[in-house]
Amino acid sequence: MKSMVPQRYQVRLTPRDLEISRDLWVYRYLTTSQISRRHFGHIKLAQRRMRQLVKAKLVDRFSAVPSKWAGFEGWTYRLSGEGVKLVAADTGLAREEIRPPIRPPQGVGYLAHHRLLTDFRIWLREGCAGPEGEFGYQFVPSYEEVRVEGRRRRRVAIEVPGRKRRLVPDGAFTLVRSADGKAALFLLEIDRGTEPLSGVHPSSIEKKLGLYRDAFDRKVDCSYGKLFEHGFNGFRVLFLVPDRRRATGVIRVAKRMDLAPIVWAAEDHIVQEPGELTAEVWLDDPKGPPRSLVE
Q1: Please, what is the end-to-end C-alpha distance for the chain in angstroms?
Q2: What gap in Å lies between CA 173 and CA 156, rounded to an integer?
Q3: Nearest 5°: phi and psi at 253?
Q4: How far apart are the C-alpha atoms of 131 and 9, rounded to whole Å?
Q5: In 178-217, which positions are buried (b, 16+ CB within 10 angstroms) versus exposed (e)?
Q6: pLDDT tens digits, residue range 105-145?
Q7: Number of helices and strands (H, E) in the chain?
Q8: Which of 71, 74, 124, 175 falls between 20 and 30 A from 33, CA-CA?
Q9: Separation CA 99–CA 107 (nearest Å)
Q10: pLDDT per residue as tens, the chain (295 positions)
Q11: CB count in 10 Å sphere of residue 119
Q12: CB pairs under 8 A, 24+ apart, for 83-86?
């Protein structure tokens, strides 16, 4: 491969470097720990290689932790302009189609939310990559956009009839059973416990679930059928929450609104473990046993 790295910072690119660059394009931001999990299996190896890729100006990095003692945990990476050229050459796409974030995000809150969303996507990817290959998947995050009639639109956003607010989950994904091609639709909510469970606040969990209830009753899964090119019979809403108390609170609100059968919650530490779709970690009843995602 002809080097696309500035001469003063030559590195010999490896297939893994290309995979890391593609991941930074797909996920937008990745921490050292996430890169290690995806490609190295050892944090020291990831640290060493990412330093070389930063020097080669293929990636940019910034600290999300305002402390010089944060160590490797403080670094978050994004694709650089040179990295865009590399991904474009590798994928055959035009540079304009890659469009990485051009600057670090404002505020640690957004980045913490994004990091947890990415952890879930990695967990899901691992779960579908088992030796049996029983399930395939497709994931669309809320930040992916398209242009419709000259205006930008989030791909997972859909209009709910009779509602002024659009339904915009943090992600939408499918699980497709390899044996028969049957697909299930899931809408993901990353909940960091900062919003009230009930009340008149527009961001309360109760308000959000009201929108999901209307969406379910009006069969908006047909709109997602066009996005994923599959037919669905309803959907399930997954809440990733900080602790068991929050999970119980979300499920109790869902039961009160007669939504408990389709609303499940799990503690967010599960995504730090190796992905396993059959893990019984999801609650749909505060008093019942946990369930697996593929039930």
Answers
A1: 46
A2: 10
A3: -65, -40
A4: 40
A5: eeeeebbbbbbbbbeeeeebeeeeeebbbbbbbbbbbbbe
A6: 877 788 899 999 999 999 999 999 976 679 999 999 999 98
A7: 9, 12
A8: 175
A9: 21
A10: 555 555 445 688 899 999 999 999 999 999 999 999 999 999 999 999 999 999 999 999 998 765 554 454 579 999 999 999 999 999 999 988 888 887 778 777 888 999 999 999 999 999 999 766 799 999 999 999 887 777 788 999 988 887 878 899 999 999 999 989 999 999 999 999 999 999 878 789 999 999 999 999 988 888 899 899 998 989 999 999 999 999 999 999 999 999 988 999 999 999 999 999 999 999 999 889 999 999 8
A11: 21
A12: 83/21, 83/24, 83/25, 83/58, 83/59, 84/25, 85/4, 86/4, 86/13, 86/18, 86/21, 86/58
Name the CA dihedral angle for 76, 79, 80, 86, rounded to a multiple of 10 degrees: 150
Return the amino acid letter for 30. Answer: L
Q: Provide CB contacts within 8 A for 94, sequence distance 6+.
A: 88
Q: Which residues contact 288 (CB under 8 A, 6 or more apart)?
A: none
The DSSP bridge pattern shows strands 171-177 and 158-159 to be unpaired
Length reported for the chain: 295
The DSSP bridge pattern shows strands 183-190 and 236-241 to be parallel
Letter for the amino acid at 226? K
Q: Which of 68, 50, 70 is nearest to 60 (CA)?
A: 50
Sign of CA dihedral 283, 286, 288, 289: positive
Calpha distance 76→120 (Å, rounded): 17
CB 275 within 8 A of CB 293: no
